Request: fold
Amino acid sequence: MKAGRVALFAPMAMLIAAFAVAIGGLIWGSFTKGGVGLYADLLSDQVVLRVLWRTVWISALTTLFCVVLAYPLALFLARSKHRNLWLILVISPWLVSIVVRTFGWMVLLGNRGVVNMTLRDLGLIDAPIRMLFTPTAVLIGLTHVFLPFVVIAILSSLLQQDRRLEEASRILGGTRWQTFRRVTLPLSMPGVIGGASLVLLMATGAIVTPLLLGGLRDRMLGTQIYTEIFQVFNFERATAMAVMLLVVALVLVAPLRLLEARIRQTQEGV
Amino acid sequence: MAGMPSAATKGRLRLDRITKTFGALRAVDGVDLDIEAGEFIAFLGPSGCGKTTLLRIIAGFEAADSGRAALDGRELGRLPPNRRDVGLVFQNLALFPHLSVAQNVAFGLELRGHAKEAIAQEVAQALALVELGALSGRRIQQLSGGQRQRVALARALVLEPAVLLLDEPLSALDLKLRRQLQQELKALQRRTRTTFIFVTHDQEEALSMADRVAVFNHGKLEQFGSPRDLYQRPASRFVADFVGEANIRDAAQLAAFGVRPPPRSLLVIRPEDCAIGAAATSLPARREGVIETIDYIGPHARLRIGLDEAAEPWVVLIHGGAVGDLAPGARTVLGFDPARAASVPAQ
Reply:
């Protein structure tokens, strides 16, 4: 019995220990090796501040687009008789490496890419529109990569809902839209918030997509850290930025978690 | 209306040859029903007999394949549920978990765009009607089963629907609470004068509550009548068997009693119309048999009496005090009066 319990907790303890050591070491290292001056340098560096701001707004917009696009899709899936078939289509991008998927967007968005060539052939533009290596491209790429996560989070929340609640709203006089607004949507908010938190966290730390689609000018924090390590070899600066990333992610996600706790409290009456 | 100020003015429901199939299954099969305003109706039948499907057709959640339904002369046709003036209390109640008691009751009123003050007043009245006034601010999760029941009723009744449908709303409650709520429901129906249609598979519940009971089997309406009609004059073997207990016997089984049922008919002899021992000697139809079992229930005792090995034993209900020293294995005389027996078609 006791041995069994130890065996159960061992993997979790290892994860926690490794995590604590890694993160703790990271924070400790950034202060001891670089000192507070390192952070002061970073926070007064215009480039870093711009990267920071870009990370925040691109992550926030990605999350917004993901939720707005994922909700109707999840609703459709929840109501569909062939749900599993559609679901396979939604998650099939996960079978392809993220690098390959991002290259796909480069092919589409490049100056001589599919979109520009088509527009030119149609006579709509003379010179190519610059899309690749812009924040717009990063936004499109990130939304595409993270969309399935939100679909699944919202879908699971919708599937847990008692369909009788919607019927109750209908028989009490609610139109379809009123029923959605007053019953379906509020009861699916835990799924929306869960999906949004996930995307927000993943987007702030994204590396591959901003690197490939944002290019060298429009960096995000993840890519900036990547550059510091692999091109500048400035580990202290990279570490300090990683701590910044951690703080940014927490600050962004905290209000969502609070909101979720509030909703849970009202819905479960705990 | 001058002479009948309290008569129900709305809630007359006519169903005309309603049919609904799911694949090969005829869930509802040509049902005709004419329900008067202010009646308390029970839909009774075993699970899968089509009673809930019919309810959902009336509510507008299912579309009938054929047939017509009209409420107070208005064709229901393909009207969506929100435009039918019909209320529904769900089997699982379907109270909104994200809203308080008062918000649940106010839901329909808000959708209708009533003024805020009017809503507050109507909600208070509805909650008072079901004796829940003190709990209006509670969350649904903080209520007991019986209290939730009442919220669901208040939520439906506050809209004053022409017809209130109730889909086995008491089935999840324990017996004592169930009996209490049955009484309350009946009183509530009388007070509000709303047409109630109560779906149940419990024949006792149906008989004790309803003015008229519709008995369903395999999607067909077997009989529609008062509880007494159903019990004393069953229209079919199914009704005789499903409503109350019955000894149902054919001509061959009755020959030994010297009783001949009408042609192609079965006799339905209720257990309480049978007698044994000395009490049986005055009855016109008698035979000797063996007591197989005695279930003593208090006010009465239920006996199974075998006439011969092969045949189905007779069920007899006698006064509890009359059990005396009767014991299984003892021989006795079984008697009944064929004049008190109902007859139903043999098939």
